[in-house]
């Protein structure tokens, strides 16, 4: 009997360590991860790939630094790499003040904030930690690369012995690159501050940029800095992602893969959901302009501290795109077999083993995991009979998630029309469907995984509920006849 957590029911992907009916798949996935083998989880829509990815995240979170991204979030390749990069790196905080840890007005503060930043899982950048090189160029590059800019101001003039004002320049770089500013102001006697310090403080206040705080002592500085980092880290990361995604995807990708390679002491498990959705990025000419780059960088970054687990459709990764994933081991994630589906129905509907409605429910609902979950919301705590099954089916297929136009706005109108037209003829082979649809449109529709080819060469709808929904809208008489035949003749 599955653990109680296995039977948590939600129409969204589950976030549990032991999803129902997937013990075998999880065991195989974990075996390959332990061998540092990159994986592709192949399966149709609504089969539970995301639920498995969530389970792996939970089960492996103590062993690995988890980097996770859902490509359905905005279907943009620059955003894809920006999110991976921000997740893979500790937020960098550039520390700006006059002097260094060894001399000057902020000698003690710089040493303290470096420690506080590290303790809160961020990466401090202090210019005095650079061994050599062009300091000014390094300042600009590292500010641009930073997640936040910590500016400490006191009373002294900001110019150095050469007459330069590096703090002022650093502040301008932070403004130019739109880096979140955290300004810690030493002391409370504003009249005694130098002209440059007053100008910057006034600029921050008047423009309402960033966060500023006047601290009276080092204890207060420690407390406020720690609280501010904890409170703002997630917000800073989002702003960093927004800034990064404006760059060319290869530039961000190079930084991401280099970052992984440089963090040799970290073990990364990189979980990427529905990579094939990046085909819909309108800013690139072809999905294949991205795939060879992605493949080459993974092979180039062939180190033992990172493992990729990608989910995607069978129709994406078993076509011409497969050549770019030769280093990945494919694992098929299929619909539940009938026995597992019956066990699921038995548990959620409290049916007896001999109940005559098992086969009818499976004939109507199918064995796709997410479709089966909807049974609970429609038939739980009700007496199961033919009329209740029919009512439940009609109630479910009228919901927005079974509206093709609403759920998949990127589909061409002619593709949706095609799906509706061929529904009445399925299951059928591609040859049998030729009189009703062009090869080009059929190819696009099959790539979107609404229909898949069975071993006998015939195509069928992956989700029976989607099929019922289309038939209900397309021809109510055909819908009624199909359903009546199943319920009355079983």
Structural write-up:
There is one protein chain. This protein is 48% helix and 13% strand. It is built from 21 helices and 13 strands. Helix 5 runs parallel beside helix 6 and helix 15 crosses helix 20. It has 4 domains: 137 residues, Rossmann fold (3-Layer(aba) Sandwich), CATH 3.40.50; 153 residues, 3-Layer(aba) Sandwich (Rossmann fold), CATH 3.40.50; 63 residues; 87 residues, no CATH class. With 490 residues, it is α/β, with parallel strands linked by helices. The strands form 3 sheets. The chain has a 5-stranded parallel beta sheet with strand order 2-8-9-1-10, sandwiched between helices. A 5-stranded parallel beta sheet has the order 4-3-5-6-7, sandwiched between helices.
Summarize the helices and strands and which ones pair or pack.
Layout: H1 23-34, E1 38-42, H2 49-60, E2 65-70, H3 77-88, E3 92-96, H4 107-119, E4 123-125, H5 135-144, E5 148-153, H6 166-176, E6 181-186, H7 195-207, E7 211-215, H8 218-244, H9 249-262, E8 268-273, H10 287-300, E9 306-312, H11 314-317, E10 328-332, H12 338-349, H13 358-365, H14 369-379, H15 386-397, H16 404-407, H17 413-422, E11 428-429, H18 430-433, H19 439-447, E12 451-453, E13 458-461, H20 464-474, H21 476-489
Parallel strand pairs: 1-9, 1-10, 2-8, 3-4, 3-5, 5-6, 6-7, 8-9
Antiparallel strand pairs: 11-13, 12-13
Helix pairs in contact: 3-8, 3-9, 4-8, 5-6, 9-10, 12-14, 14-15, 15-20, 17-19, 20-21
């Amino acid at each position: 009997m599955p653990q109680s957590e296995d039977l948590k029911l939600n129409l969204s992907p589950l976030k549990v360590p032991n999803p129902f009916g997937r013990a075998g798949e999880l065991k195989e996935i974990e075996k390959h991860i332990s061998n540092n083998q990159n994986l592709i989880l192949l399966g149709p829509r609504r089969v539970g790939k995301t639920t498995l990815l969530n389970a792996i995240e939970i089960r492996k979170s103590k062993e690995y630094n988890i980097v996770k991204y859902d490509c359905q979030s905005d279907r943009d390749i620059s955003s894809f790499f920006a999110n991976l990069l921000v997740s893979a790196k500790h937020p960098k905080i550039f520390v700006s003040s006059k002097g260094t840890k060894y001399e000057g007005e902020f000698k003690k503060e710089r040493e303290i904030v470096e420690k506080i930043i590290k303790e809160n899982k961020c990466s401090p950048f202090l210019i005095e930690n650079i061994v050599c090189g062009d300091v000014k160029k390094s300042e600009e590059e590292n500010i641009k690369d930073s997640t936040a800019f910590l500016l400490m101001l006191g009373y002294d003039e900001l110019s150095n012995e050469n007459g330069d004002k590096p703090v002022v320049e650093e502040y301008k770089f932070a403004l130019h690159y739109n880096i979140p500013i955290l300004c810690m102001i030493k002391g409370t006697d504003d009249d005694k501050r130098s002209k440059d310090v007053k100008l910057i403080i006034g600029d921050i206040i008047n423009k309402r940029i960033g966060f500023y705080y006047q601290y009276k002592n080092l204890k207060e500085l420690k407390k406020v800095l720690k609280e501010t980092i904890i409170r703002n880290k997630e917000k800073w990361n989002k702003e960093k992602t927004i800034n990064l995604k404006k760059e060319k995807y290869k530039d961000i990708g190079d930084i991401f893969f280099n970052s992984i390679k440089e963090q040799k002491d970290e073990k990364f498990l990189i979980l990427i959901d529905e990579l094939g959705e990046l085909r819909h990025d309108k800013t690139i000419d072809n999905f294949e302009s991205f795939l060879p780059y992605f493949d080459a960088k993974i092979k180039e970054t062939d180190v033992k501290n990172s493992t990729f687990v990608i989910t995607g459709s069978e129709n994406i990764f078993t076509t011409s795109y497969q050549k770019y994933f030769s280093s990945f081991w494919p694992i098929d994630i299929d619909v539940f077999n009938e026995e597992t589906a019956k066990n699921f129905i038995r548990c959620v509907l409290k049916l007896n083993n001999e109940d005559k409605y098992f086969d009818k429910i499976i004939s109507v609902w199918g064995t796709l995991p997410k479709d089966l979950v909807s049974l609970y919301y429609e038939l739980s705590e009700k007496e199961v009979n033919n009329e209740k099954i029919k009512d439940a089916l009609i109630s479910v297929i009228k919901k927005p998630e079974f509206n093709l136009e609403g759920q998949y706005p990127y589909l061409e109108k002619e593709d949706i029309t095609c799906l509706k037209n061929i529904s009445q003829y399925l299951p059928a082979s591609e040859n049998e469907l030729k009189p009703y649809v062009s090869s080009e449109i059929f190819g696009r529709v099959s790539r979107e995984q609404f229909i898949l080819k069975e071993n006998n060469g015939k195509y069928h709808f992956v989700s029976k509920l989607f099929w019922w929904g289309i038939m209900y809208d397309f021809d109510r008489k055909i819908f009624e006849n199909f359903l009546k035949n199943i319920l009355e003749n079983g």
